[in-house]
Amino acid sequence: MSSIEWNERTFSRFAYLGDPQIKGDRIAYVLTKANMKDNRYENTVVVEDIETGTRRFIENASMPRFSPDGRKLAFMRPNGEKRTSEIWVADVEMLSAKKVLEAKNVRFIQWNDDSRRFLVVGFKRRDDEDFIFEDDVPVWFDNMGFFDGETTTFWILDTESEEILEEFEKPRFSSGIWHGNAIVVNVPHREEGKPAFFKFTDIYLWRDGDEEKLFEKVSFQAVDSDGKTILLRGKPEKKKLSEHDLLYLYDSELKAINEHLGKNTGQARLDDGRVYFTLYEAGSINLYLWDGDVERITVGEHWVMGFDVDGGKVAMLIETATRLRELYLYDGELKQLTDYNGPLFERLRTFEPRHFRFKSLDLEIDGWYIRPELNEDEKAPVIVFVHGGPKGMYGHYFKYEMQLMASKGYYIVFVNPRGSNGYDEDFALRVLERTGLEDFQDILNGVKKFFELEPTADRERVGITGISYGGFMTNWALTQSDLFKAGISENGISYWLTSYAFSDIGLWFDKEVIGDDPLNNENYRKLSPLFYVENVKAPILLIHSLEDYRCPLDQSVMFYHALKDLSKEAYIAIFKRGAHGHSIRGSPKHRAKRYKLFVEFFERKLKKYEEGFDVEKILKGLE
């Protein structure tokens, strides 16, 4: 059997599944493929019949939504020429479809229980062709661009007459869901004229132009409703944004669902009075059911990457460390329905991470490592990966760069330092105002434990890399330790003060992670890699996106300029398009070039010991 090699283009051969929806015996989801030739992604809505196993397809479509009566399927289709979004409604049996709305900015659609009306949530801006004007904060947001006076728009659309029956506006970042024939609206709470984004919310019940305030200054939002009961995700009140999200039911009284589990809640849905939800658990994400008591539906070393439920049947996407997500059905037992990538993985060597636990200061920490194929007594270089966040989580999901670099002969080491998701709330909060201190020691102690487990790992050839918080930690590691002989920092932070003032979330996130009073708090200098740049001895490649508003470009440019001014070996790759998540959401050619840079930098600095980094030679043939 012929094999498939890991390289910068291998990702484009995979099929990617998303947004599963279930109604009766049908499941719809989005199938995405990368088209390298045309440098774009192609989305197809797939409708699976559970009983017959047949599939039908709607090309150039996304966001499938079954009507409550199961007879219709709505979907979104982009109009590239007009730069608008189109909402279509198809007959489920025939898949003949009609366009019911074309609008410039649509973010969310939901059927009403009458299977006729839609709630359409979008936004509007000033859209002056010459300038942007703002009197609120922030002025921009990652992957959303400049707000330019943005407000959230709510439309009630009749799909039969194709007319908008009602419309109203709320401040930016508002959201809503149907609650019978009313709409539950989540609106960011304001304090002293400033929005308390993602920390406090005011919740209203809107019906026929009249509003009733259900909650004021709460730390949860309405995420689902069955017309009688509202499902809320968050907490009644948070002191810190980094606290865990929990679940509550509201039908005039508030009822806690999963407080006793002590872990962070992911997605949640209501179904016939029962609550289904995912939970982050020490490197895994599993699905749970509450029906008076809580029981776990899935058990395993995997991530449930999205689900939908109808009548006790659950359609979900499950991914492991060595297999991309596929579609599964739970109806009392778990069954795999798709195997899009199976034939590829039969020909592609993958590497199973090995789990280990270690003591770091006052905590027990989870770590993993991947062992490459080695000849007897052969030494191999090591790459340490650091996740984003800091409330991110590593574990049992498919990480392309890890598999890619393991195939090239590198040990891969990754841990969940304090601050990570998947553990109790105290674990998550320990990193606040101490970012780069004990969490960095956790990483170093994990590497130390790894060396005890794998004596063939080369202690003299250790690299480090990460994105976002992982990029910050890469910058920090190279200024604080001589262990690392090369680093790739992506979309990372180098100076917390400018991040506070420049980032889309700096006014609240940085003030929590680094500390209040940024203009006078010494933490903003003490915990910034920029001020230790003279300590850097290893070569570094900084990768950033021009359109990253979460960790803006100034962070890498400042670090790069300071390094070069001190005659350090440093390189910077600035991608012209793409938001903070450009590493996985950039165009296919964008991603291929990034992967090529990633591989070749470590090859030249940890294996070949080459000076310089000839980017034209490295990227030749990738245009």
Automatic annotation (TrEMBL):
Q: Pfam families under this entry?
A: PD40, Peptidase_S9
Q: Would you say which domain of life the source belongs to?
A: Archaea
Q: In Gene Ontology terms, what is a biological process of this protein?
A: proteolysis
- What GO annotations for molecular function exist for this entry? serine-type endopeptidase activity
Asked if the record carries the keyword ATP-binding, the reply is: no
Q: Would the keyword Hydrolase be found if you checked this record's keyword annotation?
A: yes
Q: What are the residue boundaries of the Peptidase S9 prolyl oligopeptidase catalytic domain, all occurrences included?
A: 398-608
Return the InterPro entries for the record.
6-blade_b-propeller_TolB-like, AB_hydrolase_fold, Peptidase_S9_cat, WD40
SUPFAM superfamilies referenced in this protein's UniProt entry, alphabetically: alpha/beta-Hydrolases, DPP6 N-terminal domain-like
Keywords in UniProt for this one? Answer: Hydrolase, Protease, Serine protease
Q: Would you tell me the protein name for this molecule?
A: Peptidase S9
Species for this entry: Thermococcus piezophilus
